[in-house]
Amino acid sequence: MTDLKLIALDSEDLDILAAHTQDATVRVGDMGYARADRRFALIMNRYAWEDEPSRPARAGVRKRAGMHFEQVDAVRFSGFDPHAAEGVLNLLTIRFVPTEAPAGRIELTFAGGGAIHLDVEVLEARLADLGAAWAARTKPEHAA
């Protein structure tokens, strides 16, 4: 079980980050926008899907991870209260919607209809595991 360190510089790269962060839990208080640095960052407990093939009959592992997006010009929240620091969100997917190349919008979509929209000058995202790992209570399931 190795720690991930990934970077996304295009939509295909971002799809890989999205796959590795699907079903991550994120505490609202563990995300924020550093306007002066033009960086949006969040800490999550991600389900380690990459370890799943070796664990078909039981729940896998969750890992503490950090992700940040660079060159962020604006951040918009919808479907949840960004000031409810103790609120917990379940990340479903991340996608990039191009506007005027190379600019675009990064959309983080959460279960229950919540979303974060990041207007970016260019797509640059990084994901890194932070070392902590533990047995997951349950394996995330999705309706077919």
Brief characterization of the structure:
This protein is mainly β and 144 residues long.
Would you give an account of this structure?
- It is a single chain.
- The protein has 144 residues and is mainly β.
- The chain has one domain.
- It has one helix and ten strands.
- Strands 1-10-5-4-3 form a five-stranded antiparallel beta sheet, covered by helices on one side. Strands 2-7-8-9-6 form a five-stranded antiparallel beta sheet.
- The mean pLDDT is 93.
Search tags:
144 residues; mainly beta; five-stranded antiparallel β-sheet; 1 helix; 10 strands; 8% helix; 49% strand
Layout of secondary structure:
Elements: E1 5-8, H1 11-21, E2 25-27, E3 31-34, E4 39-47, E5 61-69, E6 72-78, E7 88-98, E8 104-110, E9 115-120, E10 125-135
Number of domains: 1
Strand content: over 45%
Shape annotation? globular
Q: C-alpha Rg, in Å?
A: 15 Å
Order of strands across the main sheet: 1-10-5-4-3
